[in-house]
Design brief:
By secondary structure, the protein is an all-alpha fold. It is 78% helix and 0% strand.
Length: 46
Amino acid sequence: MKSQYMRNIKLFSFPHRLVDIWNGLSDKIVTAESVHKFKEKLDKYN
């Protein structure tokens, strides 16, 4: 029971969710030239 619980926790942990979101972004957003451009493109994406 404990091992199944630990596997379920890993599925909903912050890093796992973050990776799924990051992988869902388009290449144009991820490869932005600067942080400012990244934020602008991310705002338009949402």
